[in-house]
């Protein structure tokens, strides 16, 4: 049987593995899959983080119910995939397999279902972990992987440039105008995902017509899109200034974006390799761009 990845279905996939649509009542099991796959201690998921995680897992289900599946092994949910379509762009939002069920084909089977949901799109994006099995699955599906970096630590606030008057607070009313920037840089609007971010307490800052940054003040930068590096640099420094935690993180920065690395290193953050951004088709230049880990 040919699969959407163009390879024969694997023989070692366990016979008891069943792929089915995601249901609302799967949520507790999916939280367990998430924690197991990404080795997160359940105790770390306390409110408001656990509420935000539930909202994050339900958002693709609300916008793209036909792109969300689980794998059931002997009656237990062991894996989940969520893909979203935004205009002409397909994004893999989540692929996770419980640690004890990894390596028996659940990830591969779910990836095939998620890819089938994107057949009428002409570009794709995936924000990847550093797991080589994920890289194998994505490159097999025709995605080109470029390495990404993360910047973590405490920012040296004295090194922050003075706030630029051009950077102003954004709101739901600005989303239509910002959609054009996302279309030009990453191939599709971010609108439904920006609504999700604002609904769950994120802050939107923008330079009208030039770009925007979304920050979660308690954790770091969520997404940044800009038309040029001058705007991107101003937005990133304003976004970081708006974070009110000691330790913060900016993740999945495509490694060739020197404008971001120079700024983050200059602010005292530690930069290290983490993950990859995978693209297929021609989503756009993908720079200046820091993708949303969940919705690219
Ligand atoms: C990545 C992940 C989704 C893969 O799912 P899985 O069910 O474990 O993987 P599968 O059994 O379907 O195998 C996937 C492929 O990776 C290959 N693979 C296994 N180990 C590998 C390695 N060390 N390096 C490269 N490829 C490897 C397998 O051979 C398989 O290819 P095949 O079909 O040609 O045999 C899963 O392991 C996981 O949840 N990891 C932790 C969370 C994570 O990083 N998710 C991805 C976020 S982007």
Fraction in helix? 25-40%
Strand content: 25-35%
Report the total helices: 8
What small ligands are held by the chains? coenzyme A
How would the global form be characterised? Answer: globular
Give the CA-CA distance, first to last residue: 31 Å
Spans of at least 5 consecutive residues with low confidence? 6-12
Compute the gyration radius: what is it?
19 Å
Count of DSSP strands = 13
Largest sheet properties = 8 strands, mixed
Structural class of the secondary structure composition?
Answer: alpha+beta
Order of helices and strands: EHHEEEHEHEEHHEEEHEHEE
Task: Identify the strand order in the major beta sheet.
Answer: 1-2-3-4-5-12-6-11
How much is the average pLDDT?
93
Explain the layout of strands and helices.
Blueprint: E1 17-21, H1 27-37, H2 49-63, E2 68-73, E3 76-86, E4 89-97, H3 106-116, E5 123-128, H4 132-140, E6 144-153, E7 168-169, H5 175-186, H6 191-199, E8 203-207, E9 211-216, E10 220-226, H7 229-241, E11 248-254, H8 258-266, E12 270-281, E13 289-290
The structure holds coenzyme A.
Protein model, in words:
The chain is α+β, with helices and mostly antiparallel strands and about 300 residues long. It is about 30% helix and about 30% strand. The protein contains 8 helices and 13 strands. It has helices at about 25-35, 50-65, 105-115, 130-140, 175-185, 190-200, 230-240, 260-265, and strands at about 15-20, 70-75, 75-85, 90-95, 125-130, 145-155, 170, 205, 210-215, 220-225, 250-255, 270-280, 290. An 8-stranded mixed β-sheet has the order 1-2-3-4-5-12-6-11, sandwiched between helices. Strands 7-8-9-10-13 form a 5-stranded antiparallel β-sheet, with helices on both faces. A hairpin with a 3-residue loop joins strand 8 and strand 9 (about 210-215). The two termini are about 30 Å apart. Residues about 5-10 have low confidence and may be disordered. The structure holds coenzyme A.
